[in-house]
Amino acid sequence: MLGLKRSVAACILMLSLTCACNDGKASREVKRFASVTGVKPEKLQAYKKLHAAAWPGVLKRIRASNIQNYSIYLKRIEGKYYLFSYFEYVGDNLDRDMRKMAADTVTQRWWKETDPCQQPLPDATEKRKIWSDMEEVFHTN
C-alpha cells in the first residue's frame, strides 16, 4: 500500500512549465499539463470504447481550445486503475479557452459519458474536480 501511496503522491501535483518552441516561422509559448485520476474497474471497457471512437465534435473543440498532443494513458497499480493525461496548450488565454470548452454542448455530453467512469483522487474530490494536477519534474526538447 505504501508503494501505491508513493506512486500516486508523485503524480498528484500540477504541471505548468513553459517552454519556447520554434515551428520554423516564429517562436511561440507552449504550456504542458499533466493530470491523474482513477478509473472504475467496471467502467474501464466503456471508457476505452468511448476513446477508441472519440466524438468529432469533442476533438474539434479540443483543437479550437488551442490544445495539441493530448494523450491519456492507463496504468494498473496494486490492483487499481489510473488514467494519466498530458496535453500542450499553445494559446494565449487558457482561462478563456477552458471556459469555451466547458460551455460547449457536445463536450458537456461527452463529459456526462466519461465522468461516471472515473474515480477522482482525494485532492480532486476536495476541489470538486475529476482530475488531479501533476507537477513536471523533468522535460527535454
Number of helices: 6
The arrangement of helices and strands along the chain is HEEHHEEHHEHE
Shape: globular
Instruction: Give the helix/strand class.
Output: alpha+beta
Question: What is the count of β-strands?
Answer: 6
- Top CATH class: Alpha Beta
Rg from Cα: 16 Å
**Nearest-integer average pLDDT:** 86
Name the poorly predicted regions.
1-25
CATH T-level fold name:
Alpha-Beta Plaits
Question: What can be said about this structure in brief?
Answer:
The protein is α+β, with helices and mostly antiparallel strands. The chain has helices at 2-10, 44-52, 56-64, 94-103, 105-114, 122-126, and strands at residues 17-22, 27-39, 67-77, 80-89, 118-119, 132-133.
What does this structure look like?
This protein has 141 residues and is an alpha+beta fold. The chain has one domain (12-133): 2-Layer Sandwich (Alpha-Beta Plaits). It is 37% helix and 31% strand. It contains 6 helices and 6 strands, in the order αββααββααβαβ. It has helices at residues 2-10, 44-52, 56-64, 94-103, 105-114, 122-126; strands at 17-22, 27-39, 67-77, 80-89, 118-119, 132-133. Strands 1, 2, 3, 4, 5 and 6 form a 6-stranded antiparallel beta sheet that branches. Strand 1 (17-22) and strand 2 form a beta hairpin. The radius of gyration is 16 Å and the shape is globular. Residues 1-25 have low confidence and may be disordered.
Output the keywords.
141 residues; alpha+beta; Alpha-Beta Plaits; six-stranded antiparallel beta sheet; 6 helices; 31% strand; disordered N terminus
